[in-house]
Amino acid sequence: MKTILILEDDENLSRGIAFTFEKDGYDAVSAGSIKDGKQMLEQRKIDLIILDLGLPDGNGMDLCQEIRTYSNVPIIMLTACDLETDEVSGLLSGADDYITKPFSLSILRARVEALLRRTEAESRQAIHSGKYKLDTELCKLFRENEEIPISATEYKLLSFLITNAGQVLSKEQILSFLWDNGGNFVDENTLPVNISRLRSKLEDDPKNPQTIKTIHGIGYIWNGGM
Description:
Layout: E1 3-7, H1 11-23, E2 27-31, H2 34-43, E3 48-52, E4 54-55, E5 58-59, H3 60-68, E6 75-79, H4 84-92, E7 97-100, H5 105-123, E8 126-129, E9 132-135, E10 140-143, E11 146-148, H6 152-163, E12 169-170, H7 171-178, H8 190-202, E13 212-215, E14 219-222
Parallel strand pairs: 1-2, 1-3, 3-6, 6-7
Antiparallel strand pairs: 4-5, 8-9, 9-10, 10-11, 12-14, 13-14
Helix pairs in contact: 6-8
């Protein structure tokens, strides 16, 4: 069951939206402020956010930008403003879609379902970890939608690290994975060389790595989504 977070301070509207999606089999949770919304995001796995632009303790655009620093969760922004500049600002802040009040709940429902379908299709083609996305179809790495050029070996190494995020991987495990299907030998020096190259592209301070950490005497761990 997918969970939708409704971040809206109009209680009647929030209840109406929640009731609509619960009838469709979703788990709908509500919050009336940015503070409560952040708590929900910390406590639960949220599959989509319906976010009001105007909230009692802050601006929905600011919250949207903050969420985008650590999550790609789909966001539909609601607003009472119908100016084109507001729509553009909402989308530039990281929202995936934008609906102006008043709106039809059936339209909102259709937008949510379309966005979830698109997100599911994209997730089958990509591995997400924090601000990083590894496109498994194009074999490309992105950080907050900016491509980071990587080699074929770096891509293969990253895919193994990211899919095992938070787990210490021994040098032997990684070398075994890098070993190609033809059985061609991968020199053990390949590993530290490629780790070093990746760190130069990913780390703010490659000499003090936080994204790909060395576990001395064992191997490495991907910490990029933490």
